[in-house]
Design a protein that fits this description.
The protein has 451 residues and is of the alpha/beta class. The protein has 17 helices and 20 strands. Helix 5 crosses helix 12 and helix 13 (335-343) packs parallel to helix 14.
């Protein structure tokens, strides 16, 4: 796509919006960056943008912003259902996401990972495997730097690995990764996408433009994801931690194997994985599949799987205090993700949960919680609904607190070996924090203060 000489309106002055505005401005376009917040409410420095010639339109957004605009580019936080975006579509203006811009600027193969849970771990793991194989790789998308910024920094011999959210896929048009993966699909972000059906459709956009020269890696154990194969034009690669597959990547007798075109490759024992939990076996399977089609040798993959310790805020060991280990799983922003964390432990868990409620069903979460928990400490906007659900499931030892520091202090006062203290909120963070990263960092600071 040619941006030179075009008028581009970028919506959302977050990390992605600022990055893509700067990049498009450097391509000699006329760029306007708009956000409903006023300048003093935006935490990022905008002066370098204005110095480069980007025009700011902050505060209330009016339809006049669309005058003579050729393209509207959306940050992930901006919904395609927002009034200004709908007006742009009515006027025939092309609306695209920041990842669409990144794709059109990208000159190297792209690996893209989506799913409700496990995206960050899988994306990071694939990046580490490619790096270990001696190939240049950049990792971005929904983690780290904006994807449009990352693709500009990689040489022609490199590779891009990207975590892609359903928000980013809303504005995808021609986006086409060489290797795509859908890890799983459970209810999440329904407030944004309006229905589970729409949420699924957004996820499927990750492989919608692929051809028979590309690959899509799908979860055979998740029936919804398995049947996405019916709509894929690319080569389907299933992964399964439960079933020996005639073709794909799977676990047999505790060993990860890759079977493709009649040949079977042994990769690693799951006992050698450096990351905890059954869900991380699935993440490892996807990483193995992607690496296999990128030509990485099995022994290189196995070595990285052994040494990879996981990512920050995902069942992250923090500290052991008075013989009790503390784990930071702040990235568990929905019940399904928190369930995976609970299942990673044998029991005796003191769980800190709660935050901004997504109003998702709590039945399975509370069923697992009853089996695994010694105490449930609830905080944030969701604490009352969670407490009511816990009571219905017969969960005892439920405590409600008024603030986050009180939750950690209460856990400390209760905890005795062999218990573990786990922050796995099953909720968004926005009632108390700017994001889950801030929540996780505050938790770690509070735990270290316990010493």
């Amino acid at each position: 796509m040619e941006f030179k000489g075009k008028k581009v309106l970028v919506l959302g002055a977050g990390i992605s919006g600022i990055a893509v505005a700067r990049i498009i401005q450097n391509l000699k376009a006329e760029v306007i960056l708009s956000d409903t917040k006023h300048k003093n409410e935006i935490k990022h420095d905008l002066n370098s943008l204005t110095d480069a010639g980007v025009r700011l339109a902050l505060g209330p957004q009016d339809e006049c912003l669309l005058k003579d605009v050729d393209y509207v580019v959306l940050s992930p936080g901006i919904s395609i259902y927002s009034p200004l975006v709908e007006k742009a579509k009515e006027q025939g203006i092309t609306v695209m996401s920041e990842i669409e811009v990144a794709y059109r600027l990208c000159q190297v193969p792209l690996v893209a990972i989506t799913g409700t849970n496990g995206k960050t771990t899988t994306t990071t793991l694939i990046g580490e495997i490619i790096k270990a194989a001696g190939r240049e790789v950049v990792v971005g998308g929904n983690i780290g730097l904006a994807l449009s910024e990352e693709v500009c920094s990689v040489s022609k011999d490199g590779l891009v690995v990207a975590e892609i959210s359903s928000f980013q896929l809303e504005g995808a048009i021609d986006f086409r990764p060489h290797i795509a993966a859908v890890l799983n699909l459970t209810p999440d972000h329904i407030d944004r996408h309006r229905s589970m059906e729409n949420y699924q459709l957004m996820k499927e956009r990750i492989f919608a433009n692929q051809t028979e020269d590309d690959y899509v890696i799908l979860n055979y154990d998740d029936l919804v994801v398995r049947h996405m194969a019916d709509r894929a034009s690319s080569q389907v690669v299933f992964f399964s931690s439960r079933t020996e597959l005639p073709s794909g990547v799977y676990v047999k007798d505790g060993v990860i194997k890759m079977r493709w075109n009649g040949e079977t490759t042994t990769i690693s024992s799951i006992n050698d994985l450096g990351i905890k939990g059954a869900h991380n076996v699935e993440n490892a399977l996807v990483a193995c599949g992607a690496a296999y089609f990128l030509g990485v040798k099995a022994d290189t993959i196995a070595e990285v799987l052994k040494n990879f310790g996981g990512v920050e805020h995902r069942i992250e060991p923090v500290l052991t205090v008075r013989g009790v280990p503390y784990y930071n799983d702040s990235k568990a922003t929905n019940p399904e993700s928190a369930i995976k964390a609970l299942e990673a432990f044998d029991g005796n868990i003191i769980l800190i949960a709660g935050g901004r409620d997504k109003n998702t069903d709590l039945t399975e979460f509370m069923t697992v919680a009853k089996e695994k928990l010694d105490y449930l400490i609830l905080v944030g906007e969701a604490k009352t609904r969670f407490a009511e659900a816990a009571d219905k499931h017969g969960i005892e030892n439920v405590r409600l607190v008024n603030d986050f520091s009180s939750a950690v202090e209460l856990a400390y006062s209760l905890a005795q070996p062999p218990q573990v203290v786990l922050l796995s909120p099953a909720c968004a963070s926005y009632d108390m924090f700017n994001n889950y990263e801030e929540r996780g960092k505050v938790f770690k600071e509070l735990v270290h203060q316990l010493q």
